[in-house]
Amino acid sequence: MGTLSGVRFSGNLFGSPILDHMWSEGHIYNGALRKSILSYEKEAPGNARSNMGGWQSEGGGLKFCGTAGEYFMKHVLEVIDEATARFYAGFARPLEPHSWTLTAWANVNRRGDYNVVHTHPSSTWSGVYYVDGGEPDPDSVGTGLELFDPNPARANLFFPDVSVSNVIFKPQPGAMLLFPSYVPHGVPPHKGSGARISIAFNARKEPFP
Ligand SMILES: [Fe+2]
Fold this sequence. Notes:
Blueprint: E1 19-22, H1 26-43, E2 51-52, E3 55-56, H2 66-90, E4 99-109, E5 114-118, E6 125-132, E7 145-148, H3 152-157, E8 166-169, E9 175-180, E10 185-187, E11 196-206
Antiparallel strand pairs: 1-9, 2-5, 3-4, 4-11, 5-10, 6-9, 6-11, 7-8, 7-10
Helix pairs in contact: 1-2
The structure holds fe (ii) ion.
């Protein structure tokens, strides 16, 4: 600790809020979500987004997941409201009236499928929820989601020995991760014998800047 007088540390600015959450009712709905997603995968062509291999449903309200999808969408909004309230509290600022545009889609990755590093423009929060980890191989803890520092120069050039440039979030069923839409993320090739099933979502605070 330095002792030079007149030098003041103003704080670590320009951080990014990352929140994780375990849905306590996830074990109740994951079976139905899994069944609906795998069934829909057989009948819908799927979209090409960040996925290399694998399948992604169209974005929307998860109508193909029925009641379980409705509960999921409702819960995601609760988590987003909580995260936003905490974020504003951190600045001691009141949260003005607003609404959310929430879009979700299902992802199925089988062995070798991966998602290139990308961001989700035109959104506020982005996130992912795990329905099924996809039976990881014995030598694997599961195919995680990798988040990267949005400012690569920070980790690469500014004291890289102590900076954090990336973190990996494990695909544990029932677990949700929430992050700003500008945070780059990707998924390495799946190492597992089963279908790795997740639901990704974007929440845009209206009015959007
Ligand atoms: Fe993504």
